[in-house]
C-alpha cells in the first residue's frame, strides 16, 4: 500500500505557459490515459454519496498500453475534506479482459476519464499536468516518500507552498478528484 498525499488544482494558464514554468524540472513525457471506474450495485462503498463524493474507488487504467488495477480508500478530515488516499495498485496484462471480468462479476461502469498526462519530477515531487477531456486542464502535485508518521496537514501545506512558488495561475486546492468532478459535471 502506498500513502498518496497530493494536491489537485485547476490550471488557469494555458498548457504552453504552464509547461514553460515547469521547465526546470525533469520531463518524463506525455501519455494518453484512460481510467474506467467501477461500482458494485449491491454495495454502497464504491458508489458516490449524495454529494457525488467517492470514499473508495475501483479503477482500471490504460496508460499508453501499460495497464493497471487500483483500489483507493480516501481519508477525510472532520469537515469531510479529502486529506490523502491509501492506494493499492498492481499491473495487469489485459485491460479488456479485466474489464470483462468486472462486468461478469456484476460491476458496472461508473465513469470514464480520458486525458493526456505530462509528467515532471524533481527529488521531492511528481507533477502531472493533465488535459482532461470534457473537464479542463489540471495539475496534480504528489510528494514522494511520505512517511507513515508524518503530519498530513503539514505535508499538504508544504506542497501548496511549493505550488505557489511555481507562479502558475491555479485554483485553490480541489477537495475532490477528477472522477468526482466529472460525476458532478455530468450530474450522475
UniProtKB/TrEMBL annotation:
Signal peptide: none annotated. It comes from the Bacteria. Residues 2-184 form the CYTH domain. InterPro entries: Adenylyl_cyclase_CyaB, CYTH-like_dom_sf, CYTH_domain. It holds the Pfam family CYTH. SUPFAM superfamilies: CYTH-like phosphatases. This is CYTH domain-containing protein. It comes from Candidatus Taylorbacteria bacterium RIFOXYD2_FULL_36_9.
